[in-house]
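Async update (no meeting this week)

Hi team, since we skipped the sync, here's where things stand on the single-chain job. The sequence we agreed to prioritize is pasted below, unchanged from the tracker. I ran it this morning and attached the output directly underneath so nobody has to dig for it. Comments welcome in thread, and please keep replies under the output.
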Amino acid sequence: MRKLWLIAPVAAGLLLPGAAYAQTVAYADPVYAGNQPWTGNLGLDFDVIAPIEVKQLGVFDNNGDGLSTAKSVGIFNRDTQTVVGSTCTIPSGTSAVLVNGDRFCAVIPFVLAPGHYSIVAVGFGQVDMNGNAHFAGFQASTENTGGGLIAFVGSGRYDTNASLDFPTTVDVDPTNIYNAGTFMFVPAPITAVEDVPFQVRYAANLGQGESHIDIVNDGLNGAPLRGPGIGPTVGNICVNVYAFDQNEELISCCSCLLTPNQVRNLGVNRDITSNTATQVVPTSVTIKLLATLAGTEGTPADCSQAAALVNKAALVGGYSAFGSTLHAAPVGTGYVTTETPFLPATLSPSELASLANRCANIIGNLSKFGQCASCQKGALGGAKF
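Output:
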């Protein structure tokens, strides 16, 4: 096939016409002749650390001079072995956009939540060869995490089927063992979070550093007309905090008073696991937040024992919560911080009763053990990636 001019190499991000921000190429393949004529599926495993939006799917183009046959590509969930979002068949020829050594097709954007995935491509062969690190002449792709949004987890996979599917035979290192499939992505857009009383999240790797929780009273339940210094008090809420260890035991509970437009923070290590009911410090916790109106009209400035007295009639929305946690760095050693909103959840009557009763046992019987240390004013941000 005839040679074409190539788009300038892109190591990490590509700003496409009309794009608001750069799209990251996960596996940026070099322009060269491949070294393996594999006709089956080839997958590269990666994990999503913080939600991403996939914009384009791509395949390696041997020599960058156009595809002799069409290639199919898609992303599969490694846990369910099912395809996620859109797949794409990139046509033969040179019509598909060439970036570095890969040809791309735009897809209907789809979000990948944190989880385990594989980018799989099929359709290579004797003319359109893929690349394989176990054969001479291989040139590795450049892996780009998008600032820690994804991690490359050290294995490829393959099968002999000629149509796109999830290959189950696992290959060995390196993480970029093949020149095959790739994709472009951006951070997932922040969408409106449903304003509900019950929200959940987790915190991990607590032995490696602090995770933070920031909670904001958004004013749904009212606010003083002229500000907090004049007139009656309205709109106060109690955000009740419940933390569970890996054994599903409630290890800590408390309540944070939030006045309208106020933000408060908790450190998971500083405030939640520093004084657990079990006196064991876990390395990860499940955190549940449940908001109630302070008093009957949101006027008292007191949330004493509110976490143990929650009932259906008192539940309110009116807050937004965000949490940070640590994840192992995708390259080298160390950890990176990610921050995401708490997610709205459905509260069952039995869960409501369990939260109240278990917290009441802690407050009533454990002489301050299992009660959060503090709920401080102000917000704490996550560290840079």
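Quick observations from my side:
Residues 1-12, 15-20 have pLDDT under 50 and may be disordered.
The CA atoms of residues 314 and 361 lie 20 Å apart.
Reply here if anything looks off.
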